[in-house]
Amino acid sequence: MSSKWTTADIPDQAGRTFIVTGATSGLGLETTRALARKGAHVVMAVRDEARGRAAAAAITEERPGADLEVRRLDLADLETVESFAADFTGRVDVLVNNAGIMAPPHSLSPQGHESQFATNHLGHFALTGLLLERVERGREPRVVTVSSLAHGHGRIHFDDLAGERRYSPTAYYGQSKFANMLFALELDRRLRAAGSPVRSLVAHPGLAATNLIQSFSAPVRFISRLVVPLITQSAADGALPQLYAATDPRAESGQYIGPDGRREHKGAPTVVRPVEAAGDPDTARRLWELSEKLTGVRFHLPVPTRP
Length: 307
Description:
This protein is α/β, with parallel strands linked by helices. It has helices spanning 26-37, 49-62, 78-87, 115-136, 169-194, 218-231, 235-238, 240-247, 281-295, and strands at residues 17-21, 41-46, 67-72, 94-97, 142-146, 199-203, 256-259, 269-272. The chain has a single domain (11-295), classed as Rossmann fold. Helix 3 (78-87) packs parallel to helix 4 (115-136), helix 4 (115-136) packs parallel to helix 5 (169-194) and helix 5 (169-194) packs across helix 9. The two termini are 31 Å apart.
């Protein structure tokens, strides 16, 4: 792909429907804004509907006629994920699993799961499974899952998934982002085994200036506000990899898209490589089966033959 891919390269999206989770700020807002400019119908799946409506109004002011729809979705609560999927009856062309929280103090979801694992992974796993049949009927259908450079130091704490014995906010953030990677790559394998037209891609924003630091403690937030502007790119630039994955005709299922700059911190979208452990099909299968058990959502996709 071109090393200078920008939103100007997004094809016309008129007639296509995107669901973008976490669309009120940061990467999700920038993704929504770029898609709306290209004529897409964007469903803004948000935890706070008032903030969602304000974000939609701001985009509409910039682009009169923007085709936006705001719907409530709290990914940490599996009941609201089920309600969202049940109430949404339209076709979905692209699902962008973007929403996330980062390094908060230890807390549990309504279903008793560690909050980052619940929000970043389990909620998106369940949402994807519940919507997949509708995505399959879409035009150039795709599921784009947003991971992070932090997946590189993540592992799944199968013996303490909720962090109740020993919890580190950053370690469990890494777990959730590693889970995103395992899920997206395993979804690709299962979709291929099923002969499905849906493409499953992963993207990461590099180091992007978003509001994720709001989950940090006050001292860390203060330091971050001083340091972050020096080492990050804008949220608009950080959204480019997921926009490429969601819209570019050349994007292939199973690809991981990130910035092309040094250490993938900044730059234009390009195909990058996940850490080797993320490609382990046995770990992915174990996580998949556990996620089905914890969410109660089954995908009805064939288990791919292992080499």
